[in-house]
Known about the structure:
Helix content: 55-70%
Shape: elongated
Strand content: 5-15%
Order of helices and strands: HHHHHHEEHHEE
Distance between the termini: 83 Å
Strand order of the largest sheet: 2-1-3-4
Number of helices: 8
Amino acid sequence: MQNLLHNDIPAWNLLVRAVVVYLTVLILLRISGKRQMGQMGATEFVAILLISNAVQNAMNGGDNSLSAGLWLAIILIAMSTLISFLTYRSQFFRTVFEGTPSLLVHKGKIIREHLDRERLSETELRTLLRKQGVHHIHELDNAVLEADGTLSITKACDPPLPHPE
C-alpha cells in the first residue's frame, strides 16, 4: 500500500510539468482554430485523444504512482479554474484563451476573408447554416462564428409593417 502513495519525483516537479503541458496544449488548441472546438469531427477527436496520451509521460515524468496521478488531477482542475477566473476577469486573457467572434455573413453577403481566417470553406458554412434551417445566404442579416466555435445567426427581417394607431 505504501508504494501506491510514494512519488518517484517531487511534487513541485509534477506541478511545473502539469502547468507547462496544460498551457501548451491549451495554446495549441487555440491556434488550431475555434471551428475545431465547436464542430469537432472524427479526425479532431482522434487528435485530442492522441494528444492526451502523448503528453501523459511529459506530465508524470514516468511516475505512475497513485499520489502522482492525484496531484496531477488536482493541478489540472486548479489550472482550469484559474484560466476560467482569468478569462472572466480580464478581456486580455479572454481574447488569448477563448478568442473573439468572427462575422462570416453580413447582410446576406459572405465575408470571404473571415472564412479564410477561420479555415472554413463556403461548403462547410452552408452545411452549418442548413443545420440551423437557413437554406439561402440572402435569408441572413448576420452569421457569427462565436469564440466557442458555435455559429449564431440573425435572419434578415422583412420591412416592419406600419403600426396601427
